[in-house]
Amino acid sequence: MIKMVVPVWRRPDLTQEQFEARWRGAHAKLVGECAKAIGFVRYVQSHKIPSAELEEFSRSRGWAPACDGLTEVWWESMEAMQAAMSSPEGQAASIRMQADEKEFCHTERMSAFLSVEHIIFDFTK
């Protein structure tokens, strides 16, 4: 599996609540509609929880302010991602999602990277 991680920033004219409702609602539905065309096999949104303690911890380390959330999407493999994203259907789905993101995201601040997870420990099992 290969994963794309995207730090997501809300448009400055939206409240956190408006942003989250739009992202979790209409945008999530659209991603679901586009998933097969673009080859997504998993999609996760992580929404920021306000925390004065974490903000102070971050400031004490000299870190930049946190994004408003994270998007994670998975493909079966790098080859599956490349095939889906280069297909006419995948490109059309990507254009639809990009246009929708501009409705609630501060896209100029967003970035993305591909990753493979390496679990170092998991005490939840």
Write up this protein.
There is one protein chain. With 125 residues, the protein is of the alpha+beta class. It has helices at 16-38, 52-60, 78-86, 88-101, and strands at 2-8, 42-47, 69-75, 113-115. The radius of gyration is 16 Å and the shape is globular. The model has no long low-confidence stretch (mean pLDDT 96).
- Summarize the helix and strand pattern as letters: EHEHEHHE
- Rounded to the nearest angstrom, the radius of gyration is 16 Å
The name CATH uses for the topology is Alpha-Beta Plaits
- Helical fraction: 40-55%
How big a fraction of the residues is strand? 15-25%
Tell me the number of structural domains: 1
Q: What is the strand arrangement across the widest sheet?
A: 2-3-1-4
End-to-end separation in angstroms reads 21 Å
Tally of separate helices: 4
Biggest pleated sheet? 4 strands, antiparallel
* Envelope shape: globular
Compute the average pLDDT: 96
Unreliable parts:
none
CATH architecture: 2-Layer Sandwich
CATH uppermost class = Alpha Beta
Structural class: alpha+beta
The number of strands is 4
